[in-house]
Amino acid sequence: MVSRLLVVTSLIALALGKPVRRDLQLHESRQSVPRGFSLVGPAADETTLALRLALVRSNTAGLIDALYDVSNPSSAHYGEHLTKEEVEAFVAPKQETVSAVNTWLSENNLQSTSLTATGDWLAINVPVSQANELFGTNFSVYTQSSTSKQIIRTLEYSIPTDLVGHLDLVHPTITFPDPFGKKPVVNAITPSKRSETDSKRADNCLVNGTYITPSCLQSLYSIPTAPATSSSGQLGVTGYVDEYAEYSDLTTFLEQYRPDVNSSTGFTIVSLDGGEDPQSSGDAGDEASLDIQYTVGIATNVPVTFITVGGDVNSGDELANVLIDTANYLLNQTAPPQVITTSYGLDESTISQNLAYNLCDLYAQLGARGVSILFASGDGGVSGGHWDSSCTTFVPTFPSGCPYVTSVGGTINVPETAVNFSGGGFSNYWPTADFQTDAVSTYLSGIGSTNQGLYNASGRGYPDVATYAADFEVVIDGTAYGVSGTSCASPTFASIVALLNDQLLSAGKSTLGWLNPLLYSTASSAFNDITQGNNYACSDYTTGFDTATGWDPVTGWGTPDFTKLLSAVGL
């Protein structure tokens, strides 16, 4: 009797320590290990995984309909942006979804923490051994060749059949970090190399060296120098990958390049996930310095917030986590900045399609609330976020393919031509967006069979617009440098949008919010059409897209004319 009791007790204990088995269904997979990573071997059973669970939102289709309704200039409800509560009502998971997922977690002795106000993102900690059984997979260790860092991922995973329609995705699983580990700035050269023969043009742009300053951009794009007057306009700059901006550098920058502005003008710092912004010698980053100095330096008197997010996106805390946390932080604010610029991205193929869709829907939520989301289009032409002359097919970037963000490409020279690194092309995840059907069709008809089979001709085309993107003078640790990349273009265009918002708010109107329906309709003629240049980056830099009259996947509609944009927005 005693021995039988011990056996029964042991079986119960064993059962309590193992996941409750349910029928599983393959949920996400990728065909192979992404380039830039190599398999090391199985992850240790006892290693704890910090996983995020995305629950299916209740009415995403309704949210998108509402987004179009308030963002289309021809709509009777244009500009009537939704409140925080109205957006949350669209996306909060249904009660049956919450119950189904919580019951499953409870059965497996797992505790979750809600990461969002609506409860659509949960966090759990689970050992590898249990995760392998829960998701019918094998988590493994991979080495990133560019950094020698190791991460734990899998190439496929399943979820319980009865959670299909309730559990949207598990992360990180098949999404890998940026395999190339590059910051988005293409190059950095000191202006001390500038020729003594360089001289200023009438528009304040240098010839021969063509170094770009705020006054040059103001002249090129008719940007006003007068300070903003609205008390409610804001502009947000994201800071990732341990990139920091220093107040002292901003002061030096303003003294040298905007002497008409109070040199003590600063910016507000918001920290997420342990993000820092140390103000000591040697800490300034080229990307953060660029983004802060050109938003403060162009969007005169518009309050700028620097959102610094912790985690090294190149060593496992990949960019997807950072983007999720940034978007959820903004959505949780009663009054987030009405313009957000981000100079980071990754190749679309490295992120799982479900996760890409989920993040894109976060940007749709922000757009519905009147926030304009801008991203640099990438610095690898048609080869993705990096130069790759050996690529055999074009590589779209993320989040530029998301239709609810505005993607900003780059130009060079005066008069302007496309800069060859300007990221552009067509998404493999999203179809051609409704707002751009005519523009994309016109371009594709013009190129005929050129590049046939190298890109998705039915995909969402990007970038949407462009600005100058080369040789911006930036102060880093007290010294002036020249930096290039579409990461110069995004904060420039964001500053223009912030100044447009200021004048709209001062006139008693709403902010612009999601820009794309406007850009592809009444505002399409408010841009300087760029018809020279290309973004060739494949087959030894001989293959890519050319610019064209009208919209093209190199510079979008072209570069902005502030005066014409004022008219386009009804001012």
TrEMBL record:
Annotated residues for binding of Ca(2+): 529-530, 550, 552
Broad enzyme group: hydrolase
One Gene Ontology term from the biological process aspect of the record: proteolysis
Main location class: secreted
Active site, renumbered: 287 (charge relay system), 291 (charge relay system), 487 (charge relay system)
Signal sequence segment: 1-17
Cofactor: Ca(2+)
Reactions performed catalytically: Release of an N-terminal tripeptide from a polypeptide
Record-linked Gene3D superfamilies: Peptidase S8/S53 domain
Gene Ontology molecular function terms on file: peptidase activity
Keywords noted in UniProt: Calcium, Hydrolase, Metal-binding, Protease, Serine protease, Signal, Zymogen
Enzyme Commission identifier(s): 3.4.14.10
Domain Peptidase S53: 211-571
Co-factor: note: Binds 1 Ca(2+) ion per subunit.
Compartment(s) where it occurs, according to its Swiss-Prot or TrEMBL record: Secreted, Extracellular space
Job description of the protein: Secreted tripeptidyl-peptidase which degrades proteins at acidic pHs and is involved in virulence.
Official protein name in the record: tripeptidyl-peptidase II
Native source species: Rhodofomes roseus
Organismal lineage: Eukaryota, Fungi, Dikarya, Basidiomycota, Agaricomycotina
